[in-house]
């Protein structure tokens, strides 16, 4: 871990903290909630040792990156502006992109809106959902699961923060990272997030030092920056109307655990396995369903995830060097 370099880059009007290591083709890692660059610690070390320049920022609102106070400054356009400015400042034309959770959602938008900057994508947990022209994502979530669904509970500024303030930060992080309940998390107001089960024993892949690292950073910043991503969901829906129906047209590998809450949302498994995802992501080349893995898959199964990323990037590099019919044969051999 001491080999990982930490720097600050000015981009899109904010100062962004990045962790980086290695030389070679660049891989950009995007974390989720409630996480940090630290979520990718294993992949940074593993893939840098294999000849890649690995870069993991604290996204806007997280960790040592600036957190604008205006909740409307957390749209996907703000986040993508940060990331394009980041790779510009590092002198990088194109990256291999890796995302998880909210980072996966940002990654889908990155590939849709700026495919010229992406060589290939490995995305985890959150499938690409095409924009519904008639109903926002928050409304769809509310219709499916009710007002107690966590995404709906996060919408009102200050409410989740007040709930979280009733608990020690380390306890909050522990609840999120160790949860293995695949059911959609619905949190009645009278119970609050403190009602989520506590796991007295940490799994083998998560240490007290890991929990304390996250807790220390969130003690400094609070959770509002990360929660503002959820509060911009409806605004994202409004602002992206012009891109309704656009496909993701970069090479993609998708990875999810079979115990992930996102994989167990009604209809998602069929969407992935019966052609729905492929329809909207036509260059989807591989899907990996990891048995016995829950949501925070890049930390729970670090070696397997690193191997998935490495193998897919190698295949994409090999395909890029092929031409004509040879290229198409390679693509077809990877297809579902």
TrEMBL record:
Catalyses which reaction(s): (24S)-24,25-epoxycucurbitadienol + H2O = (24R)-24,25-dihydroxycucurbitadienol; an epoxide + H2O = an ethanediol
GO MF, any single term: epoxide hydrolase activity
Domain of life here?
Answer: Eukaryota
Which EC class is the enzyme in?
Answer: hydrolase
Catalytic activity, EC: 3.3.2.10
Name the pathway it acts in: Secondary metabolite biosynthesis; terpenoid biosynthesis
Q: Does the keyword Hydrolase apply?
A: yes
Q: Which UniProt keywords apply?
A: Hydrolase
Q: Quick one: signal sequence residues? A: none
Provide the assembly information. Homodimer.
What the protein does comes down to: Epoxide hydrolase involved in the biosynthesis of cucurbitacin and mogroside tetracyclic triterpene natural products (e.g. siamenoside I and mogrosides IV, V and VI). Cucurbitacins have cytotoxic properties and exhibit deterrent taste as a defense barrier against herbivores. Mogrosides are nonsugar highly oxygenated compounds used as high-intensity zero-calorie sweeteners; they also possess pharmacological properties such as regulating immunity, lowering blood sugar and lipid levels, protecting the liver, and acting as antioxidants and antitumor agents.
Q: Which family does it belong to?
A: Belongs to the AB hydrolase superfamily. Epoxide hydrolase family.
UniProt protein name:
soluble epoxide hydrolase
Tell me the organism.
Salix dunnii
């Amino acid at each position: 871990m001491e080999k990982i370099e930490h720097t600050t880059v000015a981009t899109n009007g904010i100062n962004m903290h990045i962790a980086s290591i290695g030389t070679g083709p660049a891989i950009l890692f995007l974390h989720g909630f409630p996480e940090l660059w630290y979520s990718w610690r294993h992949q940074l070390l593993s893939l840098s040792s294999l000849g890649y320049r690995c870069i993991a920022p604290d996204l806007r609102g997280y960790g040592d990156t600036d957190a604008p106070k205006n909740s409307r400054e957390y749209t996907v356009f703000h986040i993508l502006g940060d990331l394009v400015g980041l790779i510009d400042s590092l002198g990088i034309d194109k990256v291999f992109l890796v995302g998880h959770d909210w980072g996966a959602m940002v990654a889908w938008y990155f590939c849709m809106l700026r495919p010229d900057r992406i060589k290939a994508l490995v995305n985890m947990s959150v499938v690409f959902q095409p924009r519904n022209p008639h109903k926002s994502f928050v409304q769809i979530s509310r219709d499916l699961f009710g007002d107690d669904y966590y995404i709906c509970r996060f919408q009102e500024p200050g409410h989740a923060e007040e709930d979280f303030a009733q608990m020690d930060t380390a306890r909050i992080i522990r609840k999120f990272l160790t949860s293995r309940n695949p059911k959609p998390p619905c949190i009645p107001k009278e119970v609050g997030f403190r009602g989520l089960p506590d796991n007295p024993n940490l799994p083998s892949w998560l240490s007290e030092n890991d929990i304390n690292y996250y807790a220390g950073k969130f003690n400094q910043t609070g959770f509002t920056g990360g929660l503002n991503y959820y509060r911009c969901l409806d605004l994202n829906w409004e602002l992206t109307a012009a891109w309704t129906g656009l496909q993701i047209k970069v090479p993609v590998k998708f990875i999810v655990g079979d115990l992930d809450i996102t994989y167990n949302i009604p209809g998602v498994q069929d969407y992935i396995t019966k052609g729905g995802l492929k329809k909207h992501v036509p260059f989807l080349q591989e899907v990996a369903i990891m048995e016995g893995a829950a949501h925070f898959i890049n930390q729970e199964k670090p070696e397997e995830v690193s191997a998935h990323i490495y193998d897919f990037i190698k295949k994409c590099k090999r395909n890029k060097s092929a031409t004509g019919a040879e290229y198409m044969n390679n693509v077809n051999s990877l297809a579902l």
